């Protein structure tokens, strides 16, 4: 077990020994009001790689020089641009290339996937999700149910924390799956809960869902690029994620989706089809009748948004270089150090303000994010650390979400954050 210390010297020593320390220089750290920020909101928007501008400018230059011919003559031809991302994102989510594609936006992809995998019948029509899911997921599920003429109050099963608790017991999820039984059509859960930072056991949930005949999918917005994913091995039916959080690929950037290989050649699956999901060998014949290409690519609607994908490729090249295992090893240590400092400060300053970390303590049940519940102070504390240069995230009723990202955050960042917290407490 690492013996952490609450000192700047200790943090700097950790940084000197960090094998990933050089990657910080490959990202732009925002400077606001003359202060280099302590940027801890990679769970909302990751920082820009220094290489991103060059990737995008290559495509702007190709557009300038080639016009429409850039679809075939650009350095990376636009016609097949999404294919340059496929193998790299497959490694991030633990999939085979045929199972993934980058296209559209997150909620769009979730809707397109649920069109295929939520096919309710008179007896099997219920959806199970976590309570306090991200609002977009809630709205998407409600609208899917209404689209089929069903009542969300009857069709949607929400599993939440027990009274007085912040986390969901996974045995409660499994019990709800078993209780729903043959009435359960689909499970759709956030792999990492956006509010608490709780990482769910997706493999166990998938097995339980399949045991009662349900399809199982996950929103991986807070999981992709953050935690170890093995979607193929786990047998997940479908999943989708955004690229702009831990994957550092521009605000509102493109999304990825996963469809397990067992569905790859099933042309009977209902889809909301578009021409870019049509067999690419005959796509330009413009003939009637949708013929889906094999695998996840058949869920594409339109051709690639190249500029957004260029930003995504810039980041994925870094992920491909580093590898998820190295990122996860540092993420665990960095987050553990943050946890140590929070507990240390709470013990010393608890008479003024104490901190309750509502994210699971076990690194296997969380990613980079720690959600910190304040006792004794409120949003004024958050506002104070913001003025000191800490970019964090406030969630009602009294929670600060902090996410030290292993690619560009340092141990010194973590220590200086604890210093800012202490100053804010002492001067409130």
Write a structural description.
This protein is of the alpha/beta class. It has 2 domains: 8-36 and 323-426, Aspartate Aminotransferase, domain 1; 54-322, Aspartate Aminotransferase, domain 2, CATH 3.40.640. It contains 14 helices and 15 strands. Helix 5 packs parallel to helix 6. The model has no long low-confidence stretch (mean pLDDT 96).
**Largest sheet, order of strands side by side?**
4-10-9-8-7-5-6
Give the class-level CATH name of the largest domain.
Answer: Alpha Beta
How many H/I helical runs? 14
What is the chain-wise order of helices and strands?
HEEEHHHEHEHHEHEHEHEEHHEEHEEEH
Mean pLDDT level? 96
In short:
Helices cover 38% and strands 14% of the residues. It contains 14 helices and 15 strands.
SSE topology sketch:
Blueprint: H1 8-16, E1 31-32, E2 35-36, E3 38-39, H2 52-66, H3 70-73, H4 83-93, E4 100-102, H5 106-117, E5 126-130, H6 135-147, H7 152-155, E6 156-159, H8 170-180, E7 184-190, H9 202-211, E8 215-219, H10 231-234, E9 238-242, E10 255-259, H11 306-322, H12 324-349, E11 354-357, E12 370-375, H13 379-387, E13 390-391, E14 393-395, E15 399-402, H14 411-426
Parallel strand pairs: 3-13, 5-6, 5-7, 7-8, 8-9
Antiparallel strand pairs: 1-2, 4-10, 9-10, 11-12, 12-15, 14-15
Helix pairs in contact: 1-14, 2-11, 4-11, 5-6, 12-14, 13-14
Please tag this protein with its features.
about 425 residues; alpha/beta; Aspartate Aminotransferase, domain 1; Aspartate Aminotransferase, domain 2; seven-stranded mixed β-sheet; four-stranded antiparallel β-sheet; 14 helices
């Amino acid at each position: 077990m690492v013996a952490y210390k609450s000192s700047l010297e200790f943090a700097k020593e950790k940084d000197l020994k960090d094998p990933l320390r050089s990657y910080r220089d490959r990202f732009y750290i925002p400077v606001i009001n003359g202060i280099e920020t302590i940027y801890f909101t990679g769970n909302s928007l990751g920082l820009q790689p220094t290489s991103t501008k060059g990737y995008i400018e290559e495509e702007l230059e190709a557009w300038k020089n080639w016009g429409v011919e850039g679809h075939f003559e650009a350095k990376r031809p636009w016609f097949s641009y999404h294919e340059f991302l496929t193998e790299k994102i497959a490694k991030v989510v633990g999939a085979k290339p045929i199972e993934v594609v980058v296209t559209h936006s997150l909620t769009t992809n979730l809707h397109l996937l649920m069109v295929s995998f939520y096919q309710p019948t008179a007896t099997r029509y219920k959806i199970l999700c976590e309570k306090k899911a991200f609002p977009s997921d809630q709205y998407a599920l409600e609208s899917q149910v209404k689209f089929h003429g069903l009542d969300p109050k009857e069709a949607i099963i929400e599993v939440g924390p027990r009274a007085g608790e912040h986390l969901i017991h996974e045995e409660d999820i499994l019990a709800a799956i078993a209780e729903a039984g043959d009435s359960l059509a689909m499970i759709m859960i956030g792999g990492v809960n956006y509010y608490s930072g709780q990482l769910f056991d997706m493999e166990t949930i998938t097995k339980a869902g399949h045991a009662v005949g349900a399809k199982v999918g996950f929103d991986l917005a807070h999981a992709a690029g953050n935690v170890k994913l093995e979607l193929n091995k786990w047998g997940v039916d479908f999943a989708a994620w955004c690229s702009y959080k831990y994957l550092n690929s521009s605000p509102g950037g493109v999304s990825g989706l996963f469809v397990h290989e067992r569905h790859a050649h099933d042309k009977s699956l209902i889809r909301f089809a578009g021409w870019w999901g049509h067999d690419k060998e005959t796509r330009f014949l413009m003939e009637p009748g949708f013929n889906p290409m094999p695998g996840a690519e058949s869920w594409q609607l339109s051709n690639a948004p190249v500029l957004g994908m260029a930003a995504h490729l810039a980041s994925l090249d870094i992920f491909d270089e580093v590898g998820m295992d190295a990122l996860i090893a540092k993420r665990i240590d960095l987050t553990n150090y943050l946890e140590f400092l929070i507990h240390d400060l709470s013990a010393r300053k608890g008479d003024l303000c104490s901190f309750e970390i509502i994210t699971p303590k076990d690194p296997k049940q969380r990613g980079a994010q720690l959600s910190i519940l304040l006792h004794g102070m409120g949003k004024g504390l958050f506002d104070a650390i913001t003025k000191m240069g800490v970019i964090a995230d406030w969630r009602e009723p009294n929670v600060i979400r902090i996410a030290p990202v292993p690619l560009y955050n340092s141990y010194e960042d973590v220590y200086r954050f604890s210093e800012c917290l202490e100053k804010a407490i002492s001067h409130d």
